[in-house]
């Protein structure tokens, strides 16, 4: 614990004095911590992972975009190298702390799935800190899901022996998470999960806003790119349509040959489309 506190203090002092974010480190959150990595220089991109895997879902984007931008990716609390939760928390507060501790004035947010909902919530609460949104397979807070999502179109088994078995079902068997032809992606996803199994549910706070996020999408004024896998779940396509309709300055693109995890399944196409978006729509 003393070592973690010292490292967090070092990061804060380093950023304060040099204005540069160290290549990697831990940010202390009471008794817990979140791990981040940073590479490159220029306008800042922050990468927020989905609800199944951790920061390495962005492997094919992290180095690529660091050629032109400062790229920061992190593990949400309970994922990857970040600690399991012992204190109560929200992912929104953790992201706000990341901005604060690393002295980030504003950033482009790359985010997927439930991380997309987090990015939207952050943008609504901190509009001055967001330059643009790149969302893949994103959902939005307050918009309901159908039973088809919860039972995965009738494919979901009645129960699982443990979280590992459940995760492996989504990776190998679920018809929507990863397109069945992308076998190499399935193998990598299984390895990533096995290295860092989820530890996410303990102590998480779910704060219900007075007005749900999907009813406030028109407040978001920055450009948004919304990517959806061709074979992703119908509810995810519905959420993407709602996000696209709600954010006036947004565009929605269907990515062929992909399920839910577009950055892993179609990395070159993701990078190409996103680079064009940043250069043309954000003019960066």
What does this protein look like?
The chain has one domain: Rossmann fold, CATH 3.40.50.1820. The chain has 284 residues and is an alpha/beta fold. α6 (163-172) runs antiparallel to α7. An eight-stranded mixed sheet has the order 1-2-4-3-5-6-7-8, sandwiched between helices. The chain has helices at 2-18, 59-66, 91-101, 114-125, 147-150, 163-172, 183-195, 234-246, 262-265, 267-280; strands spanning 24-29, 32-39, 44-48, 70-74, 107-112, 130-136, 224-229, 250-255. β1 (24-29) and β2 (32-39) form a beta hairpin.
Which keywords apply here?
about 15% strand; disordered N terminus; single chain; about 280 residues; 8-stranded mixed beta sheet; 10 helices; alpha/beta; Rossmann fold
Question: Quick gist of this model?
Answer:
It contains ten helices and eight strands. The protein is of the alpha/beta class and 284 residues long.
Helical content stands at 25-40%
Runs in which pLDDT lies below 50 for 5 or more consecutive residues are 1-7, 9-14
Q: What's the CATH first level?
A: Alpha Beta
What CATH architecture label applies?
Answer: 3-Layer(aba) Sandwich
Largest sheet: 8 strands, mixed
Overall pLDDT score: 92
Shape: globular
Number of helices: 10
Percent range for β-strand residues: 15-25%
Number of domains: 1
Distance between the termini: 41 Å
Helices and strands in order:
Elements: H1 2-18, E1 24-29, E2 32-39, E3 44-48, H2 59-66, E4 70-74, H3 91-101, E5 107-112, H4 114-125, E6 130-136, H5 147-150, H6 163-172, H7 183-195, E7 224-229, H8 234-246, E8 250-255, H9 262-265, H10 267-280
Parallel strand pairs: 3-4, 3-5, 5-6, 6-7, 7-8
Antiparallel strand pairs: 1-2, 2-4
Helix pairs in contact: 2-10, 3-4, 6-7
